[in-house]
Amino acid sequence: MEITFEHIQMENFKNHNEFSSNMGAITNIYGRNGAGKSSIGDAVTWLLYGTDQMGSKLDPRPIDQPDTETVATVKMLVDGKAMILSRSQNKTTKYHLNEVPVKATEFNEAIEAIFDKDLFLSMFNPIYFFTQNWKEQRTQVLRYVDEPLNSEVFAEMAELQAKLLQEHLKKHSLDDLEKVHKERFKKRDVEYTKADERLATLKEQLEKELEGKEPIDLDAIKAEIDSLAKERDSLDEQYHKASAVIQKRNSLLAQIDFKREEAMKQMAALEAIKKEPIEENCRTCGQGLNEDAIDAVKQDMKKRFSEGVDHGKQLQAELNEMKKQLEELQEVEMIDTRKKSAELDERIYSLMAKRDAAARIGRLETEISLAAENKAHVLKERNESQALIDSIKIFRTKQAEVMVKKVDSLFTTISVRLFEKLKNGEMKETFEIEMDSKPYSKLSTAEKIKCGLEMVEVLSQQSELIIPTFIDNAESILKYTAPAGQLISAKVKAGELKVEIKDEIKEVAS
């Protein structure tokens, strides 16, 4: 888009009661100091934004005529299409768009549709750009510059670092990847310290366990314990078997004595039956018994004797069986194995203590091995995160370098510092313009104007917008490259205000 001014008119604007002039490809304004040269540039910016050329709020009414109405009108072409803008101010501000009165909102929207305020002021006044905050300057320059592609940055990095980062960027953005691994590094760093301390503690415990001890063959100890346990169990078994035999013999002997006594009692009972007298008289009434009664008594005695004999035979048979069982049980000598078992137990317990010590040592060695593996794993992840963080730093550094090259390629004499490298290696955003290795703040007035004109040219090329440029104090520079758009220059020269219009476009003005 190209904007050209055809005509500018002012009434009661600062020290101008009336001013009207056509504008050409080059418009030179001459006059002494205070003649109102700068006011012509201020009239344009006040008309558009209510500010002076530096973007500060402006009240353009003449000091000696506070009640008069101030008017500024510009007729311009927007890509060849005519547009007339007008602003007037007395007690209120009025706006006209193509000579039609409009509200402030509609007027401002019409201006915004053509160009951005900061962009217009930066291209209209070569000094304005550098009055902005560095962040605003940076944003304005980078607005039209594409960020470097990852492939461009990777090409500048070491192959291993580039491959490492490329693989991880498949899952996360660069910012997210940095957050993930900064958090993981911090966590693993703490874990590594703890893992190192645990490993050292376990090694100290192992040293204490091994202190003053001969090497222990755990398998040999287990085999000896098993052997001694078998020996002890064999003794216990012998003792229990002998004890069982003795108990059974003692039980049989007691039963035999009891059965023998019972048999003897039975024999005595038979003898008593034999010796029983047959009573011939009734024991109750004393009368004599008849033969049948006497026979019955005899039969009863015979029956009882026979039953007693049978019972005696049964007792004798039981007694003989018990004697037979007793004979079958070999008489054993009760050996006291408790002392020997106690000795074996003592040896077993001693070996078990060694076994347990060996087991503790084994567990410690296992824990040490696991702790060492964990420490190595934590260190590996910690180092991986550190490597990624370092790769991201390098990526950002290379990205910044590529970006600086892109921006620097836009300029001829200007160089731009976009980043500042911190002590920790990270890149911090900044913005500073330099010319001939001098920062903008150290440049002379002429150098600042030249620097501003080059910035105007770059902004024009990047935004594809061409607008008029107003150079104040143009007498301070003898030779410079004219901007792509209209050039309006104000130069101090003795005499009254004078406007000189040139329609030819020159690349170099003097």
TrEMBL record:
It comes from Domibacillus iocasae. GO terms for biological process: double-strand break repair. Belongs to the SMC family. SbcC subfamily. Residues 192-238 form a coiled coil. This is Nuclease SbcCD subunit C. GO terms for molecular function: ATP hydrolysis activity. InterPro entries: P-loop_NTPase, Rad50/SbcC_AAA. Heterodimer of SbcC and SbcD. Residues 8-207 form the Rad50/SbcC-type AAA domain.
